[in-house]
Amino acid sequence: MTDQAPRPTASRPEENPQARGAIEGKPTPASRTTLSHIMTHNDTNLLGTVHGGVIMKLVDDAAGAVAGRHSGGPAVTASMDEMVFLEPVRVGDLVHVKAQVNWTGRSSMEVGVRVLAERWNESTPAQQVGSAYLVFAAVDADGKPRTVPPVVPETDRDRRRYQEAQIRRTHRLARRRAIKELREARVAEGFED
Question: pTM of the entire structure?
Fold first, then answer.
């Protein structure tokens, strides 16, 4: 038997509207989106394939749209946990960037993104060429954090993604805490950063 994070239920704070100031939860599919873009010569790097930064911008754009849609307003990129490039993207590829909210906190959201590519003039299936996890923070007009609706996973796949997002959040917070403690210890010992 393996330990798993508990499935979200209505008794958990992130699922209980009263715990979030009466904000109703939204199902995962409510903000899911796909952004598609055909790659041109303007997108290439020195090797003749599409520059990774171009793909990262598409990822950030799609994730931002999903975060804004889920939160009902502006959301800013707080971090990118992981960006994995599995295959090169070529000029003429039609790139599809699929994004969804995997997990929500009080004002933050993890957005999972899959990047697929297919030749624009062929009928072959799209192939996954990358993936990423980004954290967005919902902000108000003054740039201050605002509360977001809880995400309500509906399928087993969405519940798995929710649990995996909780693990990534735990690791992110532990890493941040460990680095802060190390830096404080170095300063206490007289080292400058």
Answer: 0.83
